[in-house]
Amino acid sequence: MNADQARQLLERALDEAREAIGSAASLEDLEAARRGFGGKRSPVSQVNESIKSLAPEDRPVVGKAVSAYNAALGDLVDARRDELQVSARDAARVRDAIDLTEGGHGRRRGHLHVVTQVQRELEDVFVGLGFQVAEGPEVETDWYNFEALNMPPAHPARSMWDTLYVRLGRPEQVMLRTHTSPVQIRVMETRKPPIYTVMPGRAYRKETLDARHSPVFHQIEGLVVDRGITFGDMAGTIEAFTRAYFGPDKTSRLRPSFFPFTEPSAEFEVTCTFCDGAGCSVCSRTGWIELGGCGMVDPNVLRAVDIDPEEYSGFAFGFGLDRMAMDRHDIDHIKTFFEDDVRVLEQF
Ligand code: FA5
Prior knowledge:
Strand order of the largest sheet: 1-4-5-9-8-7-6
Bound molecules: adenosine-5'-[phenylalaninyl-phosphate]
Distance between the termini: 93 Å
Number of strands: 9
CATH superfamily of the largest domain: Bira Bifunctional Protein, Domain 2
Strand content: 15-25%
Number of domains: 2
CATH topology of the largest domain: BirA Bifunctional Protein, domain 2
Largest sheet: 7 strands, mixed
Helix content: 40-55%
Order of helices and strands: HHHHHEEHEHEEHEEEHEHHH
CATH architecture of the largest domain: 2-Layer Sandwich
Radius of gyration: 41 Å
């Protein structure tokens, strides 16, 4: 063998090696190809053996060709090994993947909290009556929670709501809203009449927890402002809501009350859902359950938001969602809603 023949042999061998290595489908195939083209019985081994019998000037030339061949073969093997390892990892990932959506012990889906269910149902009823739904912040300023609602600083009616203040700005100027009524002001500031809106949300009071009082609870507020709105419209709306929500056999009644932001004001009650009005322990034998407060929007409130009380009148109401959920589902303590015991909540 001379130097030219040796070079041609190595070139051919490298072409064949490239072909075999490229089509190796596994690490075992690759190892077999590496041995076939670089091992003891391979063409390069033959060439290596022949170096000592070459003419002295050809020996370094062929020696370099052998080194180049070995380096190229090594690169081909390394590249193919990388490819095979990546595709083996991908295959393992697909094979071993765990479907996290499957769930280990049958499928258990959550559902809305019972108070949220009541809130959504009420929203639906009021939307059906032509109302819109609005929301406001739970942290409020004195202006929205009290002053614009016809309770100037030091007004005695402020004591109707034991307030939790937030340490922000001037003392006692920022608070957790004590009711959803401040959202009335926010709605009237941003929209001109006609206004037909309900405003559900959380309220907070500095109160001791008992069966029907919680320091955090939920209310839904209603506000109507339009031309020629009367007390009769309010009573009719409350009656329409009562029948739509509690059923056509239930009715509502109003009893005189006081709220600084409505005049006249009333408390509204609905037929006791437990005894259908016959009288039971839940309704203290009266046949009626109190839902919340209502009344005609006080002209001072309209003036505070630049609505002319000579042109427009309105009514508002606000009632507690937690107590409605309690009465509907026979739940005897309001804390049930905040303890978040799934075993209890999943029953509703
Ligand atoms: C108000 O909060 C007035 N903003 C309602 C109102 C709105 C009157 C618009 C006129 C016009 P009152 O404090 O009575 O009113 O609360 C209304 C309802 O919220 C109560 O009837 C009760 O159902 C619920 N509620 C009040 N405090 C709590 C409490 N600590 N825990 C659970 N529910 C409560």
